[in-house]
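Methods — Computational structure assignment.
A single polypeptide chain was analysed. Its primary sequence is given first, followed by the predicted tertiary structure written as structure tokens.
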Amino acid sequence: MQQKKILVVGGGIGGMSAAISLARSGHAVELIDLDPQWRVYGAGITITGPTLRAFKALGVLPEIEAQAYTGHGIQVCSADGARLAVLPTPVRPEDGIPGCGGIMRPVLHKILSARVAAAGVKVRLGLSVEKIEQVHDQVEAELTDGTRDRYDLVIGADGLFSRMRSLLFPQAPAPQYTGQSAWRAQLPRPPEIDRRHFFLGGPYKVGLTPVSKDRMYMFLLENSPEKRRLPDASLPQELERLTRSYGGIIGDIGRSLTAENTIVQRPLEAFLLPGPWFRGRVLLIGDAAHPTTPQLASGAGLAAEDALVLAEELGDGSDIDGALQRYMARRYERCLLVVQNSLEIGRREQAGRPIAEQTVLVEQSLKVLAEPI
């Protein structure tokens, strides 16, 4: 075993998964995050079967099953709530996992951050990287507090607007607005919402995802030619306006929204960085390399898979350069599929294409993603 000194930049799902996986392999891992409080934002996230498989490999699936929602299938409904069909969420029997799920972001953060601490990872907060320089077979990193250190490998897991990406690839394309904004609202979960639901055929794609025994979140993908950000105080009223044309439970939810409901709204932005995602001994993972829109609910899963594959390929640390090449060979096409198909589903949603044309690509993609990584 050749223990390597590794710096992980970014304490989100990808960064924490990388820290856990690499520390578990015997490497000395340091994780830094820009937020001094290491807070997590947002409502809930949807988890696919492949994402649950990755969390199982990280050792956290039992905690997720105990504190979140897991199940099978996606109920497709019309805009007035009539049930139309159930989309399968395929998994391989040998994987021993549910087909999908949902969890609150703070709950997932608590589970993963506890594993980071248990793995012996050194965590430093309120920091990012100011400069990086390749020095022979190491990387010298200067942090924003002025300290410098050398590492055998640096991993940029700092998200959509990655500082590490701008340092590593100054000419990289910027994230592009896709023409949609995602709304999410935390809500009580009624008994009839027994699985994930899509409501299609209306002006927007709307869905409900359970995140625990008694909570769920509603999402709505708003089509808008221009990117917009709204003040928090106006979010309940605006989301009510967007759901007015819906019947059934979505209409009821819209009319009941108040400031008591946690509501978040963000424009959807994405792009795929051309490979390779590394230069020297610095590698980008997760949204820093391949940010995607939520149509396939696979952003978190891809980030966790990135971490697991990297740890597998790095192994005992004897061949870092070869490990990064092998990592790219395993990750690029899979991540490309998610980014491209998510964007295409979004285009079909914005164009108001028939329900079957929207769901068929979801079904095809989930079938491919169920295959081993």
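Note: The domain at 5-174+270-369 is CATH 3.50.50.60 (FAD/NAD(P)-binding domain).
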